[in-house]
Write a structure and sequence with these properties.
Helices cover 37% and strands 15% of the residues. It contains twelve helices and ten strands.
Length: 321
Amino acid sequence: MTPAPIALFAFNRPDHLRQTLQALAANNLAAESHLTIFCDGPRNAAESDKTNAVRQLAKTAKGFASVTAIERDKNLGCAASVIAGLTQMFNRHERLIVIEDDILTSPHTLRFLNEGLEFYANDKRIFNIAAWSPPLSGFKIPASYPHDIYAIPRFNCWGWASWRDRFEGIDWNVSDYPAFKASRRQRRAFNAGGDDMSPMLDAQMEGKLDTWDIRVDYWRFKNGQLGINPVRSYTTNIGMGSGTHCFNNIDAEKYYNDITKARAMYSFVSDINFNNKILKEYKKTYIPQNSIYHRTRDFIGKKLPPKLKTNIKKYLHLSFK
């Protein structure tokens, strides 16, 4: 197996990038992998020191078969930078692994993604292999679930891999958005991966958000495609609260994974589809902390007697603290 090339996207966080590169270089297949680092330009003069530090790290990165640093002359912004980089890489390569500058990888991440690319290459229902999964402290996989991976109708970009024939043709303009916006049925179906998905697409199309991944989500949805996720995460995000689309008050612990527990041995499954119990748990990960769900859960957890809590938990699928 020849490892897929790696695209790493960076901007103005040298401390994060340093950690990301160190973890990535410690991967089993790093020395055989060709790494391209895309460095976006500063938005203003005040950012130049940080973006220059990022570029220096990119040019001096070691531990890979080769390292190419691509420095943007100007600031493209989150969405345009990633879309341009992905397009450039997929024009040259059939397969690609994608990492962002705040993603720490387990030493087994590259092998997991590469073997997933190999296993599902001919299964066009699978759009991508994801390396991240919600922490098992809150993400309750059924005890009877027998597999190391699961399928999910939501794209996650915290370490992922895909193929050219899945990527090419993505409608970044979301040309049929007016029809989607007017269709309750389509919006409900799109929200299978989380009730925040339709609102995020709305925000993107209304110019309130500058992102690319929700458009990938919509493309997958239109084509009936899924992603493969590991039961035990191979990555964790160290940039919560500092990234373009993160808020300072976000509950970072909710998304933190102990990647030392990532599995070195795993198996993939043919003809896999999403498991309704896992999907229900997965959707909870994306419920805002101040939502009615969380306020109800916390009130019941603190105020009601144990027997009543047990019954309510059974019927409402609430997980008490």
